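Throughout our pipeline, every protein is held as a single compact record rather than as scattered files. The remainder of this section carries one protein's record, kept here as part of the documentation.

===
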Amino acid sequence: MMFSKVTALMGALAFTLTGCASMSSGEEPDYSNVDPSLTQDEANFFSESGWTACAIGAGLGALTCIIRGGDSDDMLACSAIAVPAGCGIFMGGNYLLDEVRVNYKTKEAQLDHVASLVKQDNEKLRNLNQNAEELLKRDRAELAKMEKDLAAGAISADDLNAKLADMDDNIRYLSDSRDVAKQRLEDYQHTRDELLKTDDGQAKATLSAADREALAQLNTEIAELEEAIQASYEMQMAYSETRNSLHVS
């Protein structure tokens, strides 16, 4: 009997999570023409976090139905309401903050976890900036050669325009990536600020020495992410200037 109850509940849970994954991911932009050196470390931060939030909320909803008890029909009816609701509640709020509070119980552990997430984003954005810098050098050399080839009649204006279109795709990818990083930065800052409040959210919590050390590390990572975002902007501007220096009819 218990097996049938759990089976019914897990079926509802799986169905809800499938829908949740679809809702969180949305329509993905087309980056197929972006230079592979830029997309090799690609990560959609929001869809990953949204999926995690939905899974946590849906799981808690399912657990509530198990604790509540009843026969298979009762559990199925309960899960039809509780599982989607749990997903929606977590997706609708600050899912990063919710996730941290559910999985990490001490202030130090919560701050350490957020710092580790920021560090991962720092590494991804720094790698992207480095790859973009190397791509800029290659494209400057390629454009210089193509201009000479165009003047010599070895290639057509269409060839050069095709290269510029590829550069436009690269610029869009750099811009989109920075927009995601900026939103992630805001989420990290908000989560940090909320974690520093008391449980009722009305005042600043008292921090232990270990908490203060974890906070200092988080602040360092956040500052580095801010620097990486600024470097990303400067790199995109340099790349855009190179692209816009050519006007082919």
